[in-house]
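Objective 1b of the project was to move from sequence-level analysis to a structural picture of ligand recognition. The entry below was assembled by the postdoctoral researcher (A.K.) and checked by the PI before modelling. It contains the amino acid sequence of the target and the SMILES of the bound compound, zinc ion.
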Amino acid sequence: MEITILGFWGGYPYNNEGTTSFLIQSEGYSLLLDAGSSTLIQLEKVIDPLELDAVILTHYHHDHIADLGALQYMRQLKPIEKIEELSIFGHQEDENAFKRLTLEGVTKGYSYNPEKELEIGPFQITFLKTVHPVICYAMRIVEKRTGKVFVFTGDTGYFDELIPFSKEADVLITDTYFLEGHENHHAHLTSKETGNIAREANVKRLILSHLKQDIDLELLLSQTKKYLNKDIPVELAKTQLKIII
Ligand SMILES: [Zn+2]
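Corresponding predicted holo structure:
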């Protein structure tokens, strides 16, 4: 599978780059994971947004869904001929937010059951509820044909279950918002916690995302490396970074 980072900042866009959004592609199928600000502008550089096959959302904070309404309008206004409704998968534990996933004739909201595996196109997805002020799910996305694994923590503070959930992932993308010293935060991980999770889970590659605009990101990276303790490649998320696993 191929993952393209479309946005990675936490909270708000910065320096012409957007907030959380990843395009995941396999066998001609294109799944959008979260739709933060700048999603459409960056997505257009990879595929025609009208060719998206499905969208899945970790939670309904603005920085993860900022471009969702604009995506609905684009699919409503741009096609010359009517196109198929786009499936948008989200949890149903915030009813008002879930209702907005459906725009009749344009997009249709489907609730995922976090207790069960979900199949979307070539992917099999399992969920883990995270530590966050609103209900949010981490996702373990397996490419069915190859067994390759992409784990995204969603937005989360530290909890032990993140380790087995990330076990042996081919790539782990984390919400690493804080420098060391802010451990056990109610919403986000620190560099130290991220390093510990990736080391214990023995992931093959680590990418730090949901980055904070006003901290030293090179320090965030070096602090994380300190806790990795072995040869796990780690880097900061970048717009249009392609990860092939
Ligand atoms: Zn959030």
